[in-house]
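User: quick one, fold this
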Amino acid sequence: MAQALRQRIAPLINKVQQTVTPMYSASEKQVMQQYEKMMKGGEQYVVKDKAQADKLLKQWFYTNMARIPEGLKEAKHEWGTVQGKWGQRRDLPMTEVGMYALYVGELYAWFVVGEIVGRGFTFSGYKI
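Assistant:
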């Protein structure tokens, strides 16, 4: 079964390689120039000592881990606000209800448009 799958996708892989290789060759020089320019500009921020670099990585990790309880607290507060709004939904002014409805409609439209674009602008299904 794996052999049959490899035979079926081999032409696709070859086509991808034929397409990507010239693009890679054309952009490699430009990308390397940009990389060298960026690294030259930020030379003073590069940590060369491995022990210090490891310490920085640990500091970054634990700093972000320390932010989790604060984020959970904010999420609980937001959820309480949503529950409060939902409990008072009959008292909401029509302008606010309209704003929420437009937001939901826009969000739904973005997902629908994303699906249509993902299918290659077809409405019936994906082209493989």
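User: anything notable?
Assistant: The helical segments are 2-41, 50-66, 68-87, 94-118.
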